[in-house]
Design a protein that fits this description.
30% helix, two-stranded antiparallel ribbon, Rossmann fold, 9 strands, globular, seven-stranded mixed beta sheet
C-alpha cells in the first residue's frame, strides 16, 4: 500500500488541518477507492464520520455562530445535537466564547466511539432541556423529521449536510439561507472531480449574518 505524507491510516480529525491538505489527503484515498472504508472507521482512530472538517470550515462556522449570538444579543448555550463523537464541538469550542453542549441519542445505528462527555439525549429533548441560543445539526438521518421539529422551535440553527442524502425534503420548504461554503466537504464528494455536495444551511437566522461573515 502506498505510503506518504497523506498515509490513509492517519486520523484526519486528530487536529485541524488546512483545507488544501485535507483535500489532497482525500484525493489520494479516492485514487485508491478507499474513501468509504476510511470514513467507516478504517482510520487509526476508528472514527466514523460523514462531514469532513478543515481549519477554514471550522473558522467559517464559528463566525456564523458568533455573529448570530451577537445579532440576537443572546450569548447563552450553543447546542450540537446528533453530535456523534463530538469532534465538531471539540473543534468549534476554542473559537466560541459560549459553552457548547454535545448530545446524541446513541441509538447504535453507527459504530461510533462516544466520549463520556457527549450526553445521551435525543435532539428534541436536548433543545427542551437546554433552551440554547444556537443549535448545530450535522448529517441528520435521511427522512428524519427531527430537523423540522428543531427548526419549528424558532432557535437559530445551522444544518450541515447534503439535502439529497440526509434530513427530510420538507425541511427545505422552510425559509433558510445557504451559506454556499467553499470549505464544506463530505464522504460522498468526488475530490478528484471537485464535486462537492454539502453546505451549511441556516434557519431562523437573519440574512445579514452572511454579509457580516463574508465581509
Amino acid at each position: 500500500m502506498k505510503r506518504g505524507p497523506y498515509d490513509e491510516y492517519i486520523d484526519v480529525h486528530e487536529n485541524l488541518l488546512p483545507y488544501a491538505d485535507v483535500v489532497r489527503f482525500f484525493e489520494e484515498l479516492e485514487r485508491n477507492d478507499d474513501v468509504k472504508s476510511y470514513c467507516n472507521g478504517s482510520n487509526i482512530a476508528g472514527r466514523w464520520f460523514f462531514q469532513i472538517y478543515s481549519r477554514e470550515f471550522i473558522e467559517e462556522l464559528a463566525s456564523i455562530v458568533t455573529e448570530s449570538l451577537a445579532m440576537t444579543e443572546n450569548s447563552g448555550t450553543v447546542l450540537e445535537v446528533m453530535s456523534g463523537d463530538g469532534r465538531l464541538t471539540e473543534f468549534l469550542q476554542p473559537y466560541i466564547q459560549s459553552r457548547i453542549i454535545a448530545t446524541d441519542a446513541k441509538d447504535g445505528r453507527y459504530d461510533i466511539a462516544y466520549p463520556k462527555w457527549v450526553e445521551s439525549l435525543d435532539a428534541n429533548e436536548s433543545a427542551k432541556r437546554y433552551a440554547p441560543s444556537f443549535i448545530l445539526m450535522s448529517w441528520e438521518p435521511y427522512l428524519s423529521m427531527t430537523g423540522l421539529d428543531i427548526v419549528a422551535v424558532g432557535i437559530p440553527t445551522a444544518w450541515i449536510g447534503d439535502p439529497k442524502m440526509c434530513g427530510h425534503p420538507d425541511l427545505f420548504e422552510t425559509p433558510h439561507i445557504p451559506l454556499k461554503s467553499r470549505y464544506a466537504l463530505s464522504r460522498h464528494d468526488s475530490f478528484l472531480r471537485r464535486d462537492f455536495k454539502t453546505d451549511v444551511f441556516l434557519f431562523n437566522c437573519s440574512p445579514d449574518i452572511i454579509k457580516s461573515v463574508q465581509r
